[in-house]
Amino acid sequence: MVEVVVFVLAAAVCIVGALGVVLARNPVHAALMLVMTLFGIAVLFVAQEAHFLAVVQVIVYAGAIVVLILFVIMLLGVDEARDLQLRSLPAQLPAALIFAAVSAGVLVTVVISVDDPATGLPGLGGAIDESVPNVEQLAISLFGDYVYAFELTSVLLVIAVVSAVVLARRPSRAERADLEALRAEDMAAAEAEAERADGADYDQPAGDDEPAGDDEQPTDDEQPADDEQIAR
Amino acid sequence: MEVTANWYLMLGAVIFVIGAVGLLLRRNPLVMLMCVELMLNGVNLTFVTFSRELGDIAGQTVVFFVLVVAAAEVVVGLGLIVAILRRRPEATADDLNMLRG
Prior knowledge:
The structure holds two protein chains of two kinds.
Chain A: H1 2-23, H2 27-47, H3 51-76, H4 78-81, H5 92-113, H6 134-145, H7 147-168, H8 173-198, H9 205-216, H10 222-231
Chain B: H1 5-25, H2 29-54, H3 58-87
Helix pairs in contact in B: 1-2, 2-3
């Protein structure tokens, strides 16, 4: 009985959080809703005796990944991340809902129609022994059967760190000039498109101000962006 | 009444589908990244359920690797988003066509 109550509560938390991620207008709210879902899943992990994964879920996901996302939201400014009016293709919403109905229907039907999901074949990792603690079993599996995969994940993490450094690095002076040219090109293209779409003069003064602002203050990247936003 | 594996599997499927729909509907790259996390979590729940159901610890090991990949993916994804939004502060996923994808 306790199991049922725990499952229902955690499932409700998960689904409400998941819907919140999709529906929240403000990305900060979406991130907090994501934390809610992650906690619900951690509870379900505990209910299934995957204690170590529950702890990792809370520490890595809620503690690191979501904080990283929130950090980027704050870095970019909530205003910039907030253009969430669903500016989508006309058929996008109905198509997505049909996709949701079909895929959810198929998945749930498969789960219901298969009484026993087990194939009966033995797995690689070895049977779960109730007398051995979960962490110990996971460690034996991770550093035994899966040790090469484990080593490869360290390579993956190094690659991720290097890529993050490369992507977030301050561009050099020459690259910044290129960036300015690209940005001006973008602005011109957007302006031309707007004019073509409206026919009327729908000029964006920010497009003209902005390169000048950057030339004056080549050491500060964020400032012109803010100016531009205010100008809109 | 007893909680069976099917309950967990269905919940995992529902979370996966919600994440997929969010990925299709939302235009903000940050929120799309969060929706990918939702999908990964739906799959993780399924892995853990099968791990218990089949009595096989390998399912939990795979979830561990999924966590690592998710962390790496978020790092690279956020790096890309920061790099792109620095260039075009108002960009949405529709505007990110410079890769000609």
